[in-house]
Structure formats: structure tokens, C-alpha cells
Amino acid sequence: MPRPKKRKYTRRHDRFEDGYAFDLSPEIKKSILIISLVAVGGISFLSLFGIAGILGDYVNAGLGLIFGWAKVIFPALLIAGGFLMYNEDKKWVHGYMYVGLALFILSLLIVLHLFLSEPDLAAQAGQGGGYVGLFLSKMAISLIGFWGTLLLSLCILSVSVVLMFDTTITGLFGPDGLFGKMLMPFYWVWGRLTGGRGEADETDIDYEDAMEGEEAEYEEGDESDDFNSRELSAEAEEEQEVEKAKEEKLTVKKSNIKINIPLDLLSAKIGKPSGADVKVCSEIIKRTMENFGIPVEMGEYSVGPTVTQYTFKPADGVKLSRITGLSNDLALALAMHPIRIEAPIPGKALVGIEVPNKV
């Protein structure tokens, strides 16, 4: 019995030969990475309390060897990285925030490992900054010494916080900053111990002064608003008076005007042609047609209230377009305008010419 053929996977086209593609869109890859970061962060957090099973114990031990005491913030950093990646399309997320996360971890590991008496044993026991902190601290101490390493680490730590929170030094350590508010009680205690009012009292004084200034500005604003409203009402009244004056000037008084229409205009009537006139017009139409090479045989005529219709039958082979093109010539010959040529008359094999009756 023949064995079924196995599907071959070709890396060149990133698909199986039978057409099943494995290339994922960037959005799907991004979603998988975010979920993975959150999952690893969650397992790392549970492993700190020993409730993640055997795998959690290995993860906890491994994180301790690598990051030392900083393993407690490692899950939070992973989740924060996933959060930034999820919101990277928004305006407040920038690429340097990831750099801030990396610098924060490295500088913190160095600081945690600087004050240990036996750094090698501490790294083996998962204390301090772990093996990463041991390596970085030894390299930095050999270059710039202990105090230089401490100063540089604290500076890098501050820079990382600035990058992560996308703020400035004033925004961090100022009175309204993140760390400034946290240190405000210490400033107040220090001021009391040294006999001064302290930063807290100064801020209270500034706050009271600001409130008094706002109340004064509010009262001045009310007075100015009342004055402005009175001015606006006066201007509105003036505009209304001007508009009324314009309307009075533009209004036209109605007057009864009597128009006399001459009645003799209604007595004019359009006369009907006599028999002699009809014969003359028929001869003119026939002669005009023959002058243009169109022999015709005159037919009946019909006298109406305003026009008289003359009919004729053209010779065989004459195009009607030649006849309709002679309307101006016929009007000139008859001394009548306008005339209308009806070619042919509906229901008849005749051509009709409507000539206005003389007044």
C-alpha cells in the first residue's frame, strides 16, 4: 500500500506546496507579541508568590539569577511594554519610551548591586542586581570608580524616568510634579525642624493669594461684563431706530391711479380674403414653385379666422425638403409674413401653405 505523500514546506515562498500560507500580517504578529508579554508578565508575577507551579519556580529562580531583587518589578515592566505596544498608534506613545524602560532596568540593577559586600555570592543567591547587575557594576567601577558609577547610574535612572513618562525635570521634581508631590511632606517636616515655614506653608500662602486674586478678577470681570452689556443694549437700540427710519423712507404710499384704456383697440378685426385674393395668392404660389423648378398642381384652399391654407400636389420625384426650404421666398412673393409650410398635410398626399389674412 503506497504511503501518503508528505507536504513539503518551502521557505522561499513561505507556504506549503498545496497552497496553505503561513505568512501573518503585521497586526496579527503584534497582537501575538502583546499577548505573550502579558502572559509572561502574569506568570512571573504569580511565581513571586509560589503559586505558578513548577514552571513558576523555575521562572522565579531564573529571574532572580538574572535580575536579582529587580525581579519583583520585572512583571510590571513586561506588562507596561505590552501596554505601550498596544497603544503605539496613539500620539502619546513614542519609541523612546521603550528606551526609557531598558535604561531604567539597567541603571536600577547597577544601583542594587553597588552596596553589597560580596557581590559575587549575592549574584549566585539571586540578590542585588543579579548577574546582569554584577557584570555592569564591575565594568563601570573599573572605568569610573564607585562614586562615579553611583552618580552615573542615578543620572541614567532619572533620564529613563523622563523618557518613560515623557516629561521634564520640572515635571518630575517640581511642586506639581510626580516626585515633588511625594517629597512635599519631607519638605514640610524639614521646614518645621529648621524653624522655617516650609515648602508646604509657602504653597498654602501662594494658594491663598491666588484665590484672592481670582476673586478680585472675578468681581472686576462682573463689573466689566455689566458695562459691556449696557453698551451692547444701547448700540442695539440705536441700530433699531436707524432701521425704522430707513423703512419709513422706503415705504411708498398707496395711491388709486385710474388708467383709461381706449376701447377702439378692441374693435379691430382681422378681415377674411375675398375670392379674387385667393386666386391671386394661388397663382403666386404656383408661379414661385415653378420658378424654382418644382411643378405643382394647386388644390383646394381653406379660409380660417386668421390664416388661409392653400394646398397643392408636387410632381413625382420632388423632395419635400426643397419645398420647405422655400418658405422665405414664398413669403417675399406673397408679401406676407410669416407663412407656414406643412409638408405633408396629415392624412393627405398634399402640401399645405398657411398664409396670414390681411387686416
Q: Count the helices. How many?
A: 12
* Poorly predicted segments: 12-18, 197-205
How far apart the termini lie comes to 116 Å
Taken from the alpha-carbon principal axes, the silhouette is elongated
**What percentage of amino acids are in beta strands?**
5-15%
Quick overview:
The chain is an alpha+beta fold and 359 residues long.
Please, could you describe this protein's structure?
The protein is an alpha+beta fold and 359 residues long. Among the domains are: 10-166, no CATH class; 275-356, Threonyl-tRNA Synthetase, Chain A, domain 2, CATH 3.30.980. The chain is built from twelve helices and six strands. The chain has helices spanning 26-47, 53-67, 74-86, 96-114, 119-124, 130-165, 169-173, 178-193, 198-250, 275-291, 320-324, 327-334; strands at 9-10, 15-16, 296-303, 307-314, 340-342, 351-356. The strands form two sheets. The protein has a four-stranded antiparallel sheet with strand order 3-4-6-5, covered by helices on one side. Strands 1-2 form a two-stranded antiparallel sheet. Helix 2 (53-67) crosses helix 6. The longest helix is centred in the middle third of the chain and has 53 residues, at 198-250. Mean pLDDT is 75; it is low at 12-18 and 197-205. InterPro entries: FtsK/SpoIIIE/SftA, FtsK_4TM, FtsK_alpha. It is a multi-pass membrane protein. The chain crosses the membrane at residues 32-55, 61-84, 96-116, 144-165.
